[in-house]
Amino acid sequence: MSEVYTLKQLYEMQKELDVRIIKEKGLEGVDLLPNTVLALQVEVGELANEWRGFKHWSNDQSPRTKKIHSDRDAYLETNPLLEEYVDCLHFNLSLYRQLNLNISNYLHEDLSGDLTGLTEAFIHAFDWASKIYWATTTKRPSMAEKSLYRLTDVLLTIAKLLGFTRDQIAEAYIAKNKTNHDRQTNGY
């Protein structure tokens, strides 16, 4: 992928998808933040499950980075770990829209030096997502904003720790965004 995509560009794609879903599903005026926080937490769990590094009880702790799909006469290779990461990013970006926060104000802080590893990063992702929810229910917008920024820091740090490049993330994000639009067109 020749163009380097910014979070703002990916956010604009997510915003367009969100607006479409809200309109087509008749969700105008509905508080979707609790569902989005939970969806993000589910995706973080699915990402951790594909990573497998926390499964101390298993001899198979290798990340799931390759899956072969049969599509008519061709075989397609996908990266389930990257796909789950991108699902997390979709919901993370959706939260910016729901909280009316300008993603251009976000300044990334790399947390990889502050974390003991991916297990801790996943736990922090769950924690910061929960804090977003509780801050909104208790009407503390500055805490919700701080929590979303920290969640984004954690997710970007997870990407770094998993070895994903910006191009890989953007390419997978764009492909999944197209899939999500196709799903809406086909009555998902």
Automatic annotation (TrEMBL):
Protein name per the record: dUTPase
Pfam family, one: dUTPase_2
CDD domains, per database record: NTP-PPase_dUTPase (cd11527)
Organism: Paenibacillus ginsengarvi
Domain of life, per lineage: Bacteria
Signal peptide: none
